[in-house]
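tl;dr need the bound structure. longer version: we got a ligand (26W) that a collaborator sent over and nobodys looked at where it sits. i said id run it. heres the input, straight from their email, havent touched it
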Amino acid sequence: MPNKKTTDKTVVNSVRSARTSKAIAQDFAEHLKYDADADIFHTTQEGRYEALANTIRDRIVHQWNKSRKTQRAKNAKHVYYLSLEFLMGRAMTNNINNMGIMDQVTEALKSLGYTYEELADVEPDAGLGNGGLGRLAACFLDSMATLEIPSYGYGIRYNYGIFKQLISNGYQFEQPDNWLRYGNPWEIPRSDVAYTVNFGGKVQHFRENGREMYKWVDTDKIIGMAYDMPIIGYGGTTVNTLRLWSAKAVEDFSFQDFNEGDYTQAVRDKVTAENISQVLYPNDTQYLGKVLRLKQQYFFVACSLADIVRRFKRKFTDWKEFPNQAAIQLNDTHPSIAVAELMRILIDEEGLEWDEAWEITKATLGYTNHTLMPEALEKWPVPMFEELLPRHLQIIYEINNRFLKFAVSFFPTANAENLNAIRKISIIEESNPKNIRMANLAIVGSHAINGVAALHTELLKNYMFPEFRTIYPEKFQNKTNGITPRRWLLSANPGLSSLITDAIGPQWITDASQLSKLSAFATDPAFAEKFAKVKYENKKNAAHFLQKDCSIIVNPDSIFDVQVKRIHEYKRQLLNAFNIVLLYQKIKNDAAFASSFKPVTFLFGGKSAPGYVNAKLSIKLINSIATVINNDPAVKDKLRVHFMPNYRVTMAESVIPATNISEQISTAGLEASGTGNMKFMLNGALTIGTLDGANVEIQEEVGPENCYIFGHTEDQIAALKGHYSPWDFINRDDEIRSAVELLRRDFFNINEPGAFDALLHEILDCGDRFFIFADLRMYADRHQEILDLYNNNFSDFNRKAILNVACSGKFSSDRTIKEYAEQIWGAKPCHVTLNTSAHSVLADAHKHAK
Ligand code: 26W
């Protein structure tokens, strides 16, 4: 044993764990020198970022270890969040804030002549997601760790995340996002945590001890290796894990091919195998039946379930315990092959009978639906499935047979309606070729299915899956989405955070319902003034960010009106764009209106799926309108329009705190929830929006006078369907008619005549699928109301903004996660004590020495 006195001393003063600024500075300097063999006076900014990240990571490791040990020692039930997307953004600021050492870090860097911001700015976003669904997964991880719920996020370590968006001549171009180019200091490769994943092959059927047995043989094999990222709960006690799988070839290359002289073929097999984790599919809402995507899904589900089962078997032998130890949540249908894979493991590998395996599977799995768009529903052609996953196909057929036998009792009479109902709920679609409907598989194989906002859940029950609701009324639940206040207020908006903390104390950080105490300050002039000042400072900061990031110059004295989200027809960026054209015309044509008009900056941001023609054309149209308006001397001091290229988490963190007006204007009934709407509200923007998704609940919380709702409701839209023509609305409104004329006459694209013909044709002549013109007048009027309020009665606008912050508590993902934990997962917090006492790494090493 080492000398006790020395070890204790070593530890208390360990530069790798102590939280004083002095220790942090020392550790940073050592990393700078020893990790990169660098002369510390001649390092690069990248080198310094990495050294700082490693310094922070040193302070995480102990608690990470301890969390795992505590959670296992207590046999705590674990939550496993399976998601093909985790849109994490940057890690550093969040990690430092959640550990509570920002002051010390800033101080340490200052003592060495650096600023924290310049180093933080080096980190690339971890953009392993498309939009709402991926960012929700990231917010959930933060809340689960903060609430001390033992949990793992499981996903894919894509080498390329969501593409980088470039705008050239107004058009979107995509560039690969090589986010791992300089390595990732936040991940730990676990070469010892690796599983073999099988594809292809065939199924052998035999009898053993009177039992039917199936064996999946002659398969192609790929290895999935784990990379772990720490997820630090606020306060730094519980550190959970995001475990991402990377595909590795079983052999680097085939020796046989190599010996036969075909070196290229030998290497090609390795490359094909490793393709699985190369790239994130950049589609949301549009499902594409690509083999590689199905391979990704099975690959990460197989690795994750193998890992979960291994963890379980280390301590338990009775499979009945499995649902008491594991809750597995399926983030949309992307991981829904888990239903068949868990059945395969339990029956083929663990030898359980079907009925027992089925009860365990259902009790363990939960499924969250995130979209009502029919084109997003995943279906896999049976022939593709058969080739890739023959045993799973058998299992799915068996699940379906048993399910349909059970389901007919709910639709007993053999009339057309009932036959149709049975056809709809079947997991197999009787098309040619047949398809496997993954949502149906997920619903049948889970004990809970949930929508992500109250309205969405109602629509799921009544329109998407009414037959399933008849069969399983008890399975359907609502879990309104949320966002983490740590990233979206504490870290992104430090000015507002300290103002709030000064007013009501810091409890809001982990109990967002406390924000309601701010209501009392809405009419306090001193507080209101400070609140307005913070917003103004945030606008200056955002202006600075935009200038640096994409050379966009914005005026912080103008109103910031922002629509940032994926570009999609249903989200109606074009409704916003058409209203801007209305404003432009009015300023040009109406001198009185023009003279009283105060400056507004319209900001758009978001990526279009690379193959989504109309969404891409919307980007071009917004840019064309922007170019004309921003260069027209008659309006350019009043109206400014910008499309911010490459919208991402880091841009959101800068722009959202600076926003006055939040655009949430989807066609009612189509946005499942929205979470951007919540981020803006939390940062004191006023919402202009339709009664869609979580907007409904936002209005409920803040009151209709503080939330600008407009437009047709979901049932009014439904009633319009079939006999709606945009011209009914265009012809009766002179301003709208002349705006349409302007667009049709290529006013915004004189250099590219006809550029928008196809887009305009679809809207004007093919029925305006997303009801833009049905809502445009109501939208324009409501929008003007907000501008008038801002310009004529700023203190009232400001009061409403404060009330929005005060009423946003419901939209903390802590609330959402508590509901999942109690009502779906049956998971409880497991407290991990914070290590403050002396701890000896050397003593540990001796203890484990062989
Ligand atoms: C198969 C292609 C594909 C890929 C992703 C289809 C659908 C998706 C996602 C389900 C799309 C998505 O991100 N949905 C969003 O989920 C958010 C979190 O629940 C909601 O807030 C958004 O309203 C919803 O559009």
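gonna send this back to them w/ a short note. Residues 32 and 47 are 7 Å apart (CA to CA).
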